[in-house]
Amino acid sequence: MRRTRWILALLALTILLAACSKTAPQNTMNPAGPTAQTEKNLLVLVLWPAAAVFLVVEGGILLISIRFRHRKDRDRMPPQIHGNTRLEIGWTIAPAIVLAVIMVPTVSTIWQLARQPADAMQITVEGYQWWWGFRYTDPDMAVNYGDHDAIVTADVMVIPTGRTIDLSLTSLGGGAHSTAGVPDHEVIHSFWAPRLFGKQDVIPGETNHIVFSADAPGVYWGQCAEFCGLQHGRMKFRIHALDEADWQRWVANEKDPAVAPTKDELAQKQGMDLFFGNGGVGGQCIQCHGVGGTAASSTAAPNLTHFAATTHECFAGCDFETFNPDGTPNIEALKAWLRDPNAVKLGAKMPDYGLTEQQIDVLVAYLYSLK
Ligand code: CUA
After folding, report:
1. What digits encode the pLDDT tens for the residues 277-310?
2. Which atom of ligand 1 lies nearest, measured to the CA of 232?
3. What atom of ligand 1 comes closest to residue 225's alpha carbon?
4. How far is CA 108 from CA 17, 66, 212, 213, 341, in A?
C-alpha cells in the first residue's frame, strides 16, 4: 500500500517535471513577439496575487484542520459560532478589491490586443479537419497568373519579421466528402502559437482576429487548441518568420505558377499526368487539391502549388516533415501518406486510392518538383 503510494507520487512528479524544458518550442513563458509578451506580462501580474490568495486560503484550511482536529480525550463539542458580521464584510470586500484592481490591466490589455492597425498585413487563416490553410489577401500579395488570386499556403504560414500581421480566422469544411461545393466537417478550432500569441477560437461562419508580429526570424510552432475531432491533437502548424531579403524571395517564388515538368523529366511528367488525369488514368488529386497556374483550382485540401518550397517544412497538419534534417526530400513519409493516408492519420479526409508503388513513385517525383 505504502509502496504503491510512493510509485504513484513519483509518477505524478515525473509527468509534472516532463513539462519543464528551456528549449520547448511552444512555451508561453518564452514570448517571441509583442502580443505574446503583453499576454505574458498580464499572466505574471495576475499570478502573484493569485498565488498569495492560494497560500492564505489553502494554508488556512490546513492550519485549522490540524489545529482543531478531533482528539481522543475530547468528549464534548467546542462552542458553536453562528455569523460574524465583521469577518463576513471583510471577506466580501477584500476579494472585490483584488478583482477590481486586476480588472484594470486585464481590460486595458484586452482593448490593446483587439486593436487592428490599418497598415497591418492581412492573412486569412482557414481551419479544416485537420490542417490549416493560409490566404494572403493583401492586393500586393496577388499571384501573377490567372485571375490574380491570393497566395495560398498550407501548414506553414510564412511572414516577414517585424511586420504587424492581422489574421482573420475562420473555419471551413472540405475534404473529399464535401459534395457540389457544400462543405462538411465545419467545426470549431482554436489557433494558437504560444510564443507569438494566445488562443483564439476559429468558428464556422464567424471571423475572429489575432494581431501579432515576430521579433526575430525563426520557426514558431503552433497547434489547434480546441477539440475538433479525431485528429485534433495532430492539427499543427508552423509560422516561419523571414528577414526582408528572404521574405521578398519567398513572395516572388509564391507569386509564380507551378512549374510543369518537361518531357525529359519522365517520372515527374508521368506524375503530373496521373495527378491531372491526362490520358484517362488518375485525376482524383485535382478534385480537392489546387495547383496554381493549372486547371486544378479546388480549395478543399491543401494547395500544392509550391509543395516543395524549402519553407514548406511539414505537411498534413504538420503530421510529417516534408524534408529530412539534411534537406533532402522526405520521400518515405510522403510515400506512406499516399499509400494510405488513414494509416498515417486515422480519419484523414484524403481517401486511399489504392495507388500502385509505381504510381506513388511518379506522384512523389511530381510533388517534389513543385518548388
Ligand atoms: Cu482543430 Cu482541434
Report:
1. 998 888 899 999 999 999 898 888 999 999 999 9
2. 2
3. 2
4. 34, 43, 17, 19, 46
For 121-255, CATH number out of 3.60.150.10, 2.60.40.420, 1.10.10.10, 3.40.1390.30 equals 2.60.40.420
Determine the Cα–Cα distance for residues 232 and 253; give it in Å rounded to an integer: 32
The CATH class, in words, for 266-367 is mainly beta
Q: How far apart are the first and last CA of the chain?
A: 61
Q: Is 224 in the pocket of ligand 1 (CB under 6 A)?
A: yes
> Does residue 126's CB lie within 6 angstroms of at least one atom of ligand 1?
no
- Domains 121-255 and 266-367 in one fold: yes
Every domain of the chain and the residues it spans: 28-59+88-115, 121-255, 266-367
> CA-CA distance, 332 to 283, in Å (whole number)?
23
Query: Does the beta carbon of 232 lie inside 6 Å of ligand 1?
Result: yes
Q: Cα(198) to centroid of ligand 1, in Å?
A: 15
- Print burial letters for 70-107: b (CB count within 10 Å at least 16), e (below 16): eeeeeeeeeeeeeeeeeeeeeeeeeeeeeeeeeeeeee
pLDDT in tens, 43-52: 999 998 899 9
User: Rounded to an integer, what distance in angstroms lies between the CA atom of residue 33 and that of residue 196?
Assistant: 5
C-beta separation of 185 from 174 below 8 A: yes
- Measured distance CA(155)–CA(304) in Å, rounded: 11
